[in-house]
Structures are given as C-alpha cells and as structure tokens.
Amino acid sequence: MNLMSAISVALLALRVNLLRSVLAMLGIIIGVSAVIAMVSVTEGAKRAMEERIASFGANLLVIRPGSSAFGGRRGGAGTATFMTDADVEAIRSEIPGIVAVSGEMSGSQPMVVAGENWTTNVQGVHSDYFEARDWFVESGRAFTPAEVRSGARVIMIGQTVATELFGAADPLGQTVRVGAVPMEVIGIMAPKGQSSWGSDQDDTVFAPITTTRARLLGYQLGVRDPVFTIYAEVAPGTNVSHAVADIEELLRIRRNIQPGAEDDFSVNNLAEFIRARNETETQLGVLLAAAAVISLLVGGIGIMNIMLVSVTERTREIGLRLAVGARRADVRNQFLIESVVLCVTGGIAGMAIGVAGAYGIGNLGDFPVSIHPAIAGIAIGAAVFVGLFFGFYPAHRASRLDPIEALRFE
Amino acid sequence: MAPPLIECRDLTRVYRMGGGEVRALDGVSVTIEEGEYVAIMGASGSGKSTFMNLLGALDRPTSGSLRVAGEAIETMGPDQLAAFRNRTIGFVFQQFNLLARTSAEDNAALPLIYSGMKAAERKERARARLTQVGLGERMDHHPSQLSGGQQQRVAIARALVNNPRILLADEPTGALDSQTTVEVLGIFDRLNADGITVILVTHEQDVAAHARRQIIFRDGRIVEDRR
Ligand SMILES: Nc1ncnc2c1ncn2[C@@H]1O[C@H](COP(=O)(O)OP(=O)(O)OP(=O)(O)O)[C@@H](O)[C@H]1O
Ligand SMILES: [Mg+2]
C-alpha cells in the first residue's frame, strides 16, 4: 500500500470520529503550543539581553563600597566607607587600560520651571561619565572638566524630563530650579529607553558632581569629596578580569585592608551581571522545556489511548484488510500513519496557537518575541516523533491480530 | 493432465483451549479441480468454516498438507499468505464485512490497494466489477445506503476485483431473503460459467442445488461427496 492512499485512509478514519480525534489531539496541541511559546519568548528575551549588554557597554566596571553591588552577600553599601574623587583619580592614573572613569552620586530632587513641576533623579557625575556609559548629548553640549572643578550650575536633561518640563519648547539655555538652586540647561541627552530593570533611563538629570555635592544633596558623609559609585570603562581589547584585579589591588591599598581581610568594596562587570541574569532565564527556559516535554508525554499517552481504542473498535476492519491481502506491515503502517497524522494535525494547530500565544505574552509583558522559522520544523518534528513513538504499540497490536478472530470480533 | 487446483491430504485443524481440544477438521482429504462449482454442507459446528478458512489461507492446518493453485499453504510465511489471499482468492462473508462510511467503489477496490495498483486503475477495475454485479448505478453509495442484497453484491465485486481463480463464499446467502438469494446465486452461476472455481458453504438444499458437487461434513470429516 503506498503512502498517499495510506494517508487518505488515515484522514478518513480521523474524520469519521472528528470530535474524538480533536480531543485526542488536545494534549499534543497544548504541548506543541507550550514549546513554541516558550522558545519564542525565551529567544526574544535572550536577544533583548544581548542588545542591552551592547547598549550598556560590555566593558563597563561598576565599583561600589560594600560587598557585591548585586549579590548582597554581605553588609550593604551603607556600612562601608564611601569612595572619593581621589579614588577616581587614582584609578584614572594608575590602572592601565582604563579609558574613562567617573564618580557618581545621586538623589531625587524636585525641578520647577514656569509652573511645571517634575521630580527626578539628579545624578552628579564627572565629565568622563558619558564616555564610560556610551551615552552622549543629542543637542547642546556636555559639561567640561573645568565646569566640574568649579561646580558650575549647569545640567543636562534626559528626554523624559525635557518633555515633562518643556513640552515641545526648546529647553536649551533655559533656567530650571533644581531643589533650591537655579541651573542652566546646556544639553539634552540622547534617548536611552528602559534599563534592564524596567525603569525609564531617560527620566534623569546630570549635573557636575561637585555642584550636586555642594548645593543639592547636602549630605554629611564624613569623607571629603565622596562618591556613591565609580564607573570605569576598560579599553576594548583589554583583559577585563585583569583590570578588575588591578583595581581591587589598588583600592585595598588605598582603603588600608589588611592581607587576608575581605574587600569592603566590590568591582562588578555589568555585562557579566546581565549574563548571569540571562542564565537564570535560561534555567527558566529549561523548566518550561520540561513542562513542554511532560505535556507532550501526556499528549502522547492520550494518542496511544485513542489509538488502542481505535484498533479495538476496528478489529473487524483489520480482519477484513488482512483477509483481502494486507500484510502485517500494511496494517501496522496504516495505524502508525493515523497516529502521526493525528499528531501532526495537532502539531500544526499547536504551532498556530503557540505563535499567537507568544505574541500575546510579548504584548502583555511588553517584551520582544522572536519567532524562529525553524519553529515549524521543531513542532512538526516533535509531533511526528510523538505519533510514531506512542502509535507504535497500538499499531503493532493491530498488525498481530489473527484474521479469522478479527473477522469474528463483535 | 494439470494438477488439481485444490488438493488436501489428511487436513487436520485442532483448536486447543483451556484443558481440552476441539478437532474442528479431522483428516480431510479431497481434491477440487479448476472450474468446479462446489457446495459445502453439514450441521453447525461440523467444520465447514474451518475448512474454508484453510482454503482461503486465512488459517494454517495443524497437520496435513494443502496445495492450492500449486502452492503449499502450510509452508508459507505471513507475507506470502497475504499475497496469496490478495491474488488467488476472493472471499465472500455471511456478514458482508464492508467498510462503513466508505463508498461501494472504494469498498470494491480495497484489495487492489494491497496489490500496489495506481488509483486510476483501481477505480476503473472496481467500477467494472460493480457493473458486472449489477451495481453500476450505485458506485458512490455507502453500505448504510444499500440493501442487504446490494451490500453482498459489493462484497462479491470486492472478491472479484483482483481476478481470483477461486471464489470462496461462507454462507453468502445466510443474511439474505429468498429473492436476493436468487439474485446473488445467479451471479455465482455466471462467474462459474466464466471459469472461476466457486466454493460456497450453505445450510440450504436449494442453494446447494446450484452447485454441481456437494460435499457434506460431519464432526470435522467428509461424510459424503456427490456430484
Ligand atoms: N477459534 C476457535 N477456538 C476454538 N474452537 C473453535 C474455534 N473456531 C471453531 N471452533 C470449533 O471448531 C468446530 C468447527 O467450527 P466451524 O466454525 O468450522 O463450524 P461450521 O461448520 O462453520 O459451523 P456453522 O455452520 O455454525 O458456521 C466447532 O466445534 C467450533 O466450536
Ligand atoms: Mg461456519
């Protein structure tokens, strides 16, 4: 019996029991749609992650007092001594391969201009900050090292702040009252979008770190020229872990840490941190894959069940086919093909639902979805495999029937 | 002289079940020549169906030898038996055994699927056979849309579709009324006149009267063989 007529026989048999066929397919439909939604969503998340790493700068080091800035294994940043401008200068002059280094210190401040009011995060930074973060002004200019030294009353504003305070008007040259201090807008930052934590990076203002220290934040921190965080950019092609080790050694000396004692600061590579997060997402993907495999398994058992029922119901038909010359292999193949057709039909339906579901999840959670063309192959492949695997036993049973007994079956 | 079409020697079929055994056929020896028209008769349980199933290669003897159309049935493997059933034998059952929700044409063409024949040729042959049994007008009808006699005619067309040398019919008129019985027997008569060997099982004397030879079974043995 050739394949085409076998498939048409299979399709006929499935049509005859349409509702039952659909119910039997349900497990496969759910399994395949889960696989596809899962793959598409994790793939999209992975891509977005790569883009974020690229946008943040793969070679950016973040240095903070306290233990790991992200892990929080030990005491928080507040318990350790702040770093200072002097540390920034030491890193700049003593660590090879550092192209830009800047301190940062920030706080929330109300901003007022012509009756408009907007509270945002004001970041005091050195002039190297923008190179380290790969983030530059779109219009106007950045403040100069001289302005940082003199504590000039100038700010650069993010896109969100520009819109909130000025609407469509041009903010350049305007004076904004930041806290109690009037400051001149000299630049507008290029749009940056969301951070990997989901916050709006454009909702920010940059000022010389000296100005924020003296006039805005007014912290009494007990050290001279404190900074919360130091950002350092390693030159491309430099070994990042060497740079990290060099900085750690330098800071241990500067902060008088005895040999054997633990660091009271941390140096983190942001790209690495994002990759680590990515890894947890991969683990999530593995979990989802396991769920998908289980649902395919359950779906396969459903198929096997329905195929066994079908074989029993059609015992007389099998007997007849054997009596008119079907070989055992013909009967086995007929039921195998039926099982595969059932699964593939379910697989195609599952694929459609999975793709729609992936876009739905993407829309709801507002994250990107990446539908790979190979998805169709994976779905059909999984369906064929399940069909063959779980269809084999019922098909084999059908093929071993004795023609006479089968014909006599009531 | 050509060897006989069917030659049984000491044919025995024993069913073992539970403790005991049933000798459904107990040393049957008989020859049937090409072109014969044979009626098999006997009481219920006398072994008629068992004998037909052996002739049709649906079953294998416990002992004894059976040559049909030059082939030793008892030595053949499952695939050879399948091919033999497909090409040499046409089987008609009491219960028609048509595929439900399948047209008369597709039912009649069923054996040809297993001969590896192309769809167009299958269709043509099935249609020719259906026309031959007087169902030319009902090719597209499903079994549920056909009378018992018409269903049995579809089954006969199916049995004939692969040009078998032997037509085996186990109580083909058992489920039919007397009018359709006459029609179906008319078909058998014509087929036999065309040279096909016809062997049918029946309980009815007037059905058996159509055949030119009557073989009577009792308790798994042939007790009478008259022409
Ligand atoms: N599969 C089987 N297992 C056990 N015993 C069987 C089996 N098939 C047939 N028999 C026994 O073999 C004997 C012959 O059965 P068979 O069907 O050949 O009779 P028959 O002459 O066709 O009867 P009927 O006229 O009722 O169709 C009976 O005693 C029956 O019970
Ligand atoms: Mg019988």
Question: Short description, anyone?
Answer:
The complex is a heterodimer of chains A (410) and B (227). Chain A has 410 residues and is an alpha+beta fold.
Give me the secondary-structure topology.
The complex is a heterodimer of chains A (410) and B (227).
Chain A: H1 3-16, H2 18-56, E1 60-65, E2 83-84, H3 85-94, E3 98-113, E4 116-125, H4 129-133, E5 137-140, H5 145-150, E6 154-157, H6 159-166, E7 175-178, E8 181-189, E9 204-208, H7 209-217, E10 226-227, E11 229-234, H8 240-254, E12 265-269, H9 270-313, H10 315-323, H11 328-365, H12 374-399, H13 403-408
Parallel strand pairs in A: 4-9, 6-8
Antiparallel strand pairs in A: 1-11, 1-12, 2-10, 3-4, 3-7, 3-11, 5-8, 6-9, 7-8
Helix pairs in contact in A: 1-11, 2-9, 2-11, 2-12, 3-8, 9-11, 9-12, 11-12
Chain B: E1 6-16, E2 21-32, E3 37-42, H1 48-55, E4 63-68, E5 71-72, H2 78-88, E6 89-92, H3 104-113, H4 119-132, H5 148-160, E7 166-170, H6 178-193, E8 197-201, H7 205-208, E9 213-218, E10 221-226
Adenosine-5'-triphosphate is lined by residues 15, 17, 22, 24, 42, 44-50 of chain B.
